[in-house]
Sequence to fold (946 residues):
Amino acid sequence: MAAQRTQTLVLIGHGMVGHRLLEALAERGALADPAVRGAPGWQVTVLAEEDVPAYDRVHLSSVFTGTDPNQLGLSTPEFLAGHGIDLRLGDPAEHIDPAARTVTTTSGAVVPYDVLVLATGSYPFVPPIPGADAPGCFTYRTLYDVDALAQYAEQARTGVVIGGGLLGLEAAGALRTLGLATHVVEFAPRLMPLQVDDGGAAALRATIESMGVAVHTGVGAVEVETDADGKACLLKLSNGERLPADVVVFSAGVRPRDRLAREAGLAVGDRGGVAVDERCRTTDPSVYAIGECAQTSDGRVYGLVAPGYQMAEAVADQLAGSGATVFTGADTSTELKLLGADVASFGDPFADGRDGRDGRDGRDGPDGGPRATEIVFSDGREGVYKKLLLGPEGQLLGGILVGDTEAYGSLKPHAGRRLPAPPEAFLLPASAAALPGADALPDDAVVCSCHNVTKGAVAGAIAEHGLTDIGGIKRCTKAGTGCGGCVNTLQAVLDASGVEKARGLCEHFPDLSRPEIYELIRTEHIRSYTELMERYGSDGAGTRPGAGAGAGAGGGCTVCKPVVANVLGTLAPELGLRHVLDGEQAALQDSNDLFLANLQEDGTYSVVPRVPGGEITAEQLIVIGEVARDHGLYSKITGGQRIDLFGARKEELPAIWRKLIAAGLESGQAYGKSLRTVKSCVGSRFCRFGQGDSVRLAIDLELRYRGLRAPHKIKGGVSGCLRECAEARGKDIGVIATAGGWNLYVCGNGGTDPRHAELLASDLSAAELFALIDRFLMYYVRTGERLERTSAWLERLDGGLDHLREVLIEDALGLCAELEAQMDRHVAAYRDEWQAVLDDPAALARFEPHVAAVEFLEPGRGRAAVLADGTEAALFRDGDGEVYAVGNRDPFSGADVIANGIMGSRDGVPVVASPMHKQEFDLRTGACLDDPEVTLPVLPVPTARP
Fold:
């Protein structure tokens, strides 16, 4: 259902699940660009009952211990504005008209929709007992509830929570934090009856009672009695007991908020909940329901956030066009701390191991067949209870952990499988047995239930992206960003992934690293990828150097092609090469370098002109504004003191460049692994503290090193004094003015793993400074590994900073003059890459939206084409002349970009890599080699002009 034009999506409810849907749509590029009128995608209106945007209800109780409610927020104004989302707070939906496809709000506003999503959540169940609406009676679901309860409790002494489940015990903890004498009343014979058995409940009760909370089980609330002012003062129980109760909190379960659906004639479950299918569609195909308001296809209503997130992903897939994700049920495992007690349950801790019949009574089933085996560890002194339930074949059915949940992360992924070690290893105290590590988990074990992420996905992300911390795993996989209960397991997977990296660059150069490839090209004067492949490459299927198999531009892969292109670009003055898009070199470039602009999530590009040192004229600012206006581009000031223009189609880029070049601007190379910017403060020109002209120096540095291709991006900064306003010590090259000249700092970076640059030399003259930076950069270019920032490079160098001083200052290797001369040749050969394209008709032709005919295809480079039936295809020609045609739409992002991907081979199979996130597709079959459930359509190859 991907929107081919702007369509309207109305979302009723802005809770955790509703906001997750918005994020999932944004991640898929399915939201309409607010800066482009009529852009394809969904234009979203959110109708929210509360007067604050979505927040984290899972950690609501933390507000009682001092957490600022704003810290719980899940949304930001920037996210909403950037995606054109119309969030209407405090104006909830009142009526749905499915025939007219409109929603009427309490304010009387009538909002039309093409698709409607219900994310209305649930409401607390309040038992119909006398006095339940008296002052002093509360529910516990929202920030408003928390605020009202906290204020009222200031004049109270005692409190009672009705309900001893998850939310009830959390509420009891809140009352205790507020200083009230606290009671918990639970109608069932034990606490947390849905999560723990009698043994676990006994251990939990002992811990809670040891903290001064009175527990009453097997009784119900009959009446809230009030005082002369009509306020709650006592709670009468079904056994006749009366508890003092200045405050009563009802936490006796929740009910789906399905009123809107009922009144609109949509089907609902017998026990409530909007009935939906496996794609979360209601009986009206234009209406979806997700989260606690939905009764899913397995007949259940899920009250946890993780299943709600999975439903949101399923709907996002429907709206983004792929429809691959379905929701047929969810894991309800949970781990939490309640009133100081650690509690976890997973799988089905009450199963009998044969056919799902309840085994809670401890007896065999009626057929007398084999039943589940319980393995229990209990320590009454420490309040610890652990139970594992094993099926007849030894498979782990479920478990309960109270008081010590350390093994939860290791046990939960094994639910439904045989354990990799004796059960005792998971149950006994750490001093008695070693807990099996993450290497014992199978790859398909789900380690994050909130986002349904497997161990294999985490391990794959660690390997693919070189991740080193939990933050990196969260960014790449979303694991750990829900309830957070899987963080320890993620750390274990990270710790277990210390695999020594292969020495070679990829399967096509299995014995050569990037520095070695650089030296071969430099010393043997190799001028093309084909020549390098023929002499030193492999086809990835066992054919070794000299064979030339796949050696042409159609061979290689997304790793080696851009690396070789980068090296050829760096050594162009030495090799007599002109432009990075000349001839075969174009087939090596990733999408950013191919179109000299940054690819964005919707398939458009951003344009960043160079603004050396942040200095720009008024006339240039006006031209940039005119370009943004005339082409409908979103403009943003970057952290590098320049202006980024978003939303340009590739066919618009040459026209945009012409206007910018006419104003004296040029490519800022924000797309390349090269020098980006040299940031500066105003220095001695204006600042009363300035000791050096930082602006002039920053401009000179940026103009000298512009266009230099490197293993990774390079950033610089110049501060005019030690106050460091340009943040130079967070850059690859940092210069700070002193009374004696300039201090040079190297190998710093910001980002997710910030590192301060280290002092390489001090009190340098301008000439000494430039000579030392020349040497530093060229030495990094020679010896850096693929995608290795200077900070990581320095850590890898044997001897670190001392080694750099020996090589670059003491000239221990005799390279200084050679490195300086090489930099001089680079400076002399520099030419603006945008202008070079404008001067080259062959390069310009690649910016046309569609190729004119098959015969115009370049080997190894894709082009989009419109087939006779109107289908947009991505066409590719390999080095042998074979032509392939597949769909141009990337199934993961929904953007029409496949034709811009790198063509190559993987294990001998011809593939194209999506320029978005590098998933590879078999050009013969369309199958995604990274996700077997995803395919590209294979299309007929046009024989005439398409």
